[in-house]
Design goal:
The two termini are 27 Å apart. The chain is an alpha/beta fold. α8 links the parallel β7 and β8. Helices cover 46% and strands 15% of the residues. It folds into 2 domains: 113 residues, Alpha-Beta Complex (Aldehyde Oxidoreductase, domain 3); 95 residues, Aldolase class I (TIM Barrel, Alpha-Beta Barrel). A 4-stranded parallel beta sheet has the order 6-7-8-9.
Length: 258
């Protein structure tokens, strides 16, 4: 879904046929002001989403952004101000806050992890483990926090994981099946393959035909050894068992992506 489609669906869910409480209690013709006050330190994300929400509800609202996505924020900061019909402001405030709180949380946590691996050339990747229908927004928040997007879905990259290898009958068969499929379908997609141990790694290195090797659940010492064995022939990615407490150890191995 596009961001505009997400906003439209969210407004439809929340507003229904109207904010009847505000319509009943706010005098017609009223003009009011509002501001978004920051209550916790972090990384801001979602200002433009809020603008688009309020514009969808009432294009006459005056939206003034004082901070932008990616800025570090602190309690007492004001992200934006609004002026206009109070019914329109009240109709969109919760939806705007819901999106901004979630996206800022993702951006903040991403920045925390990126800061933990500062000084190493490794790139921090996201995954497809996103909230259904909110992937566009959540992956945007990762980028705002300093991370990088992995594949967006199942359609824009080949990722041969352990299940695929098992169903195909082994690593060599899986790689060759993918190569045939891409040729038949005339698709130009990057190929990544997951390996679980050094035996599988050696099979991949002997066969070739991939762009990136994901080293799954390798301890840092084993990861370093595997990267040395790959010797720069393929991009490398570390996955599994990685936390904020140990991610710097993984970054120090020379891996390209985490």
């Amino acid at each position: 879904m596009t961001i505009d489609e997400i906003i439209d669906q969210a407004l439809r869910e929340d507003l229904g046929d109207g904010d009847h409480t505000s319509l009943a209690t706010v005098p017609e013709g009223s003009v009011s002001k509002a501001r978004l006050l920051v209550k916790q330190s972090g990384v801001l994300c979602g200002v433009d989403i809020a603008r688009r929400i309020f514009n969808r509800i009432d294009p006459s609202l005056e939206f003034n952004a004082l901070l932008s996505d990616g800025q570090r924020i602190h309690p007492g900061d004001v992200a934006f101000t609004l002026r206009g019909n109070p019914v329109s402001i009240l109709s969109g405030e919760r939806l705007a806050l819901n999106f901004m709180q979630r996206l800022s949380g993702i951006a903040t946590q991403t920045r925390r992890i990126v800061d933990a691996i500062e000084g190493y050339p490794v790139k921090l990747l996201d995954t497809r483990k996103t909230t259904p229908l909110l992937r566009e927004l959540e992956k945007y928040a990762v980028k705002i926090g300093g991370g990088h997007n992995h594949r967006f879905g199942l359609f824009d990259m080949i990722l041969i994981k352990d299940n695929h290898v098992d169903f195909a009958g082994g690593i060599v068969k899986a790689i060759r099946a993918v190569q045939r499929y891409l040729a038949e379908k005339k698709l130009d997609l990057k190929i990544e393959i997951e390996v679980r141990n050094f035996q599988e790694l050696e099979e991949v290195l002997a066969e070739g035909g991939v762009h990136r090797i994901m080293l799954d659940n390798f301890a840092p010492a084993d990861l370093r050894r595997a990267i040395d064995r790959i010797g720069g022939r393929y991009e490398t990615e570390a996955s599994g068992g990685i936390t904020l407490a140990n991610i710097r150890d993984y970054a120090a191995t020379g891996v390209d992506y985490i």
